[in-house]
Amino acid sequence: MTTERPEPLRVEAIFDAVVDLGPEEASLRLDVECEGDAALRAAVERLLEHDRRADGDFLAPRPALLFEALGEHPVPAFPDAPPVAARIGRFSVVRKLGEGTMGVVYMGYDEMLDRRVAIKLLRPSVAGVGWLLREGQALGRLAHPNVVAIHEAFEHEGRVYLAMEFVEGFTLRAFLAERPRTFPEVLSLFLGAARGLAAVHDAGLVHRDFKPENVLVGKDGRPRIVDFGMAALAQRDGGTNGGGGRDAAPPSGRSVALDVSILPRGAIAGTPAFMAPEQLRGERATTASDQWSFCAALYHAAYGIPPYSLDGDFVALSRRVLAGAPEIPAQRGKAPAWLGPILLSGLAKDPAARFPSMHALLAAIEAHLPRDPELDRHGIRRELVALRVALLGVVIVASGLAFRRLVHAEVTLELVILINCAAFLMVLSIIALRWRKLSQNRMGRRAAAIVVGVEGVMLVHRLIAMRLGTPLDHVLVNDLVLLATVLGTLALTDRRKIALPAAIAMAGALLGLFLPSATSLIYVAAGSLVLLLLIADVVRER
C-alpha cells in the first residue's frame, strides 16, 4: 500500500470510469483500479462526492475540483489549453458541458441547420491527436437511429474536434429507475439498443463497455448508444493482433478507428458487472463480449437482479462469472418464460456457444413477440371482434329507433336514453365475459377502455341533450362527430387503418348537418358502415 500523492490525471481517469456506475459497481471498479492505494481511492471518492453535490456536471470534473480533491490549491490544470473562441469550426459555442483528461465537451449551435450539437474538443497537449478524427470517421459510418449521430470531425486552430448529436434525456439506467416500467416498455428500449449495437458491429467496431449507463433515451423515447471511448476494431477473420494487446499499434496503412485507448495503460476496459468472462481473463473483447454485456443488462432489467451477485470485491465477482452460467430466478416478475433460455445462451461462458451475432440474438427475441399475449393483438382477435359486434348491436338498436321515427313521430329522446342504457349494459356484460382473455393483452385492455368510454360519453351526452331539450336529429349528428373524433385519435396514435371509418363518421355528421330531414337515414348508413369496417379490420388480421 502506498501513501504517495496520486497523480491528478490518474485520479481523473478513474473518476471518469466510475462516475456513472452505481455504488456497488463503483466500489468494485475502485478495488481494481486503485490496487490498495488508499490515497488514490480517497481522492477519487472525494471527487465523486463533489460530483454528486454539483447536481448536473455529470460529464467530468472541473480542474479546480480535481485539485481540491487532492488537497491542493486550484491551479490551471492544463496551461497549454488556450481559451476557446466563440466558435469551433462552423459551430457557435453555447456553454461548456464538462471536461476530462483528453479534452473538453461543449454544447454548440449549428446555425446552418438550426440545431444544437455536442462538441468534443481535444486538448493540444494530448499525444495522438488523430484519435478523435479516427473516432469520428468510424462513428460517422454508423447512420443508424440507435447510435448517436456524428455530424462532423475536423480541426480547429490545430485542435481536433468532433461534433455529434446532442441528446436531451436520461441514461437507460435512470429511465428505468424513474418509475416502474412494464416489460414491453423495457424490452422495446433494449431491442432498440440491440439494433444499435448490431450496427456498431457491422461497422467493424466492438463497444467493449455496453451497459445501461451508455445508452441514452431521448425525449422522443428512442434509445441511442453513446460513449465509444473504449471501443476498438473488431478482429476480422484471418486478422492478427500483431502480438500486442489492446494497446498495440495498428498495422501501417490500415484505416482504423479508436485503436488508441483513452484509459491509462493497464486499466481494465469495461465495467465489472457487465464484463464477459473473456474480458475478465484479460483476453481481447469481441462482438460476442458485447453480446454478453447486453444480455447481462437485459437480465438485470427484466428480473430486477444481476445474473451474478455483486457481493464482495472484483475477484469474487470474477470467480462467480468464470465458474459457469447463471440461472433464471424462480420469481421472474412479468418477464415471459421464453426470455430465459435466450438470455442464458447470450450469457454462455464460451463465446462460441453464444449467438453468432447480435442480429441472430435479435431474431431469436423477435420470433417470440407475435406469440406473446402481452405484446400481440392477434391473440385476442376474437375478443376484439366481439367488442365491435357489441357496438354494431348498439347501432342496430339506434337504427331501429331512427327508422321508427320516420313513421311515428312519438319516438322521444327519453326512449332513446333508455335504449342507450340497455345497450351500455350489454357492452359491459360482453367485456365482463371476455375480460379474462382481454386483460392478458395491452391492446385488449385498451380496446375495452375505449369501448366503455365511448358508450359512457354517448350516454352522458344524451342525458345532457334531454336536459337541454336538444332535438333527436341533433343528438344523432353529435354522436357521429364524437365517433369520428375517437376513431381519428386512434388513427393518429395507434391504427392508421381506422382513418377511413373516422372519415366516414365525420362525413355522415356533415351530411346530417346540411340534410336535417335525412339525419336518421344518414346515421343508420354511416354508423353501420363504420362498425362493419372496424370488424373487417380485425377479421383480416392473420
Automatic annotation (TrEMBL):
ATP binds at residue 120. Residues 91-369 form the Protein kinase domain. Pfam families: Pkinase (PF00069). It comes from the Bacteria. GO terms for molecular function: ATP binding; protein serine/threonine kinase activity. Keywords: ATP-binding, Kinase, Membrane, Nucleotide-binding, Serine/threonine-protein kinase, Transferase, Transmembrane, Transmembrane helix. SUPFAM superfamilies: Protein kinase-like (PK-like). The chain crosses the membrane at residues 385-403, 415-435, 447-464, 476-493, 521-539. InterPro entries: Kinase-like_dom_sf, Prot_kinase_dom, Protein_kinase_ATP_BS, Ser/Thr_kinase_AS. This is Serine/threonine protein kinase.
